[in-house]
Batch of 2 targets.
Target 1
Amino acid sequence: MRHRILLVEDDPALAQGIYKGLREEGFEVVLVQEGERASQIVQREEFDLIVLDLMLPGRSGEELLEEWQARRSVPVIVLTARTELHERLRCFALGAADYLAKPFWMEELLARVSARLRIVREAPARLLRWRGVCVDLDARTLRRGEEELVVTRNEFNVLAYLLERSGRAVSRSQIAEGALTPGEELNPRTVDGYIARLRVRLGEEAGSAIETVWGIGYRFRREELSDGEGSDRDGA
């Protein structure tokens, strides 16, 4: 399977050089040169890794890191001419997986890309199960028995947000800010609508694990979950 990489770099010569180098190594590469465009494409498409310049027109790399940190598990390798320690530490705090200072050798970037993809490939899948339903948080798939359940991007984001915080009551505003697509109208009815549709898609038994916490928001019952390859409660 060809890994899919998003390259976000506004310097035309450097962008073309990196694009060519990644393609020659067999990667599928999507190149964008503006921060806002990068934000939009990540909302619609899936990538295995992101190579991100910090100095971008429109929206900075730091803004994108902060946005993606709340919504994605895709590793981000930062490219920048800034080499100060506090700049590096800030990028790692915002969720960057790696940092490469400009100028750099293409061979080093390729080695770092391969290393990060190997870590992702060798990491155990994040599988969560309950009452016949299985969610793969990394592959973003949802199954009930042998049936694959089709959900929208935001529906999956809302479910993943609740699962990753199982046992905790979270407010509608927390769900909206942490799971929904930036720019969407965020209000209690928006979140309630996603929850209602998820309960229907999951079915009455599995959907009942998403509890309404009156006066606060919602909670996924922690005791319902099992993980890994273990059998799920009341499952097959």
Note: The first strand starts at residue 4 and ends at 8.
Target 2
Amino acid sequence: MAGYISNDNRKVTTHRLIEMKQRGEKISMLTSYDYTTAQIVDQAGIDVILVGDSASNVMAGNVTTLPMTLEQMIYHGKSVVRGVKRALVVVDMPFGSYQGNELEGLSSAIRIMKESHADALKMEGGEEIIDTVKRIISAGIPVMGHLGLMPQSINRYGTYTVRAKDESEANKLIQDAHLLEEAGCFGIVLEKIPASLAARVAKEVSIPIIGIGAGGGVDGQVLVVTDMLGMTNGFSPRFLRRYANLNEVMTQAIGRYIEDVKSCDFPNEKEQY
């Protein structure tokens, strides 16, 4: 089956994303963590692939994203880049690789870019990390921001509930979005915030705003690929739409394989040398 944008094989760049916002074309974004999945996602016509530190949850089985190391993110980033021809590949900077130290943040960013060959990086936070963001961008590295619910700060929040519902937190989020734009970020992910607030941010800044649980008034959407394909169970936030039930498909296929092995039906004469 052909991809949605199969007739447009030009490499997606940060500049093209801004052009898409300007002409009102929505931006599609999904996560990937390995070569095979990235190939499929890219060939389907996705605009942006996020190598998310959510790999900590869906690939490694951790409860939070905090355990992910720089080396692990580079490994996943490198694997994804090898499978991608068209999409813009953005790699998450993991917890502890940039907070509180500009030079360490720059060093981490350079390592990821040099070793993974990714197109850009994503960082969580606003005013608190703005000097590090500026330093990384000044080195020629494109940065995407991330505001709202920030999983790397989950121990401070204590909950994954909707963020920025009160006026003070909403005002800070708006201010942080402007700071990230002024610093030179090419886009911002807004996670799990009121739709009206996300729409306001998208109107106030000139860079693309990508939402996850942030309503439809933004410039694009991102989901975790294993969630939207129905590979995961027990995680059903309001913003998640499942486009397949691969958990059921895979379980049935594996069950048939086991039956065929046990009954000596596999391999048959045509399936051996």
Note: Residues 14-226 form a domain with the TIM Barrel fold (CATH 3.20.20.60).
